[in-house]
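agent> Task received from the user: take the single chain below, predict its 3D structure, and emit structure tokens. No templates, no multimer pairing.
agent> Plan: (1) validate residues, (2) run structure prediction, (3) serialize to tokens, (4) report one or two observations.
agent> Step 1 OK, no nonstandard residues flagged.
tool_call: predict_structure(input=
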Amino acid sequence: KVHSRWNKPNTHFKTEIGLDNPTLSSFKAVINGGELIYEINEKEQPFVPFPFEVFTFKNDIKYRKDDVGFVTETMGLDRDSFFNLLKTTSLKSGFFTNKVTVRNIRTQPYIVDKIDVILKDGIKIPFGALSGTEKSRVILDILISYVTELSKYKSVLLLLDWEKIYSFSDGSLKPYLEFLQSSIAHFQTLFVSHRERPDLDWTGWVIAKLYETPSGPTVTQIER
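)
tool_result: status=success, residues=224
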């Protein structure tokens, strides 16, 4: 979908996307005057025929009493998919979270499901008792574990332009970046950092930096 910031008559933007799992595929996405079209082998197409999934987080979700509703809306999943995820997907890719369980509090007039989190050190804490950063680490653990399993069967692109990561310390973020860049993660990741993190090891990442210049935005790109 065309984001509102791109949905303008004078906007023209083209980008090429390459997918390398399970097969090598590529296409161009073109935004022209608010219209979104795709080009495959230099021919316009109404959709992308390659089977792949894109996952990201929503930044505007406010915490509420229904833990499951909050978490699923943040990840863009429905409740049934979330419950199946907990039943069938191990949190072995979790770096902060060891296990997640759900307690139903009520069903009327609306559903309230509470989440209990067992951390890596074995401590069990209600999701609502965690700090904002700790909640974000739990949600990130769940989604990364999910896409790790899904990427065994189809191409997956994980977009991490999530403002909650801003509060992660370098030490908290380090294991995630190492995992996402490793051969274990059979999916592609686009990670947006909202501030400089020069003390982290970016080996293996392609780094693009966006600068504001008098003539307009400028992008420089290097490969570590």
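agent> Step 4: summary for the user.
The CA atoms of residues 56 and 159 lie 5 Å apart.
agent> Done.
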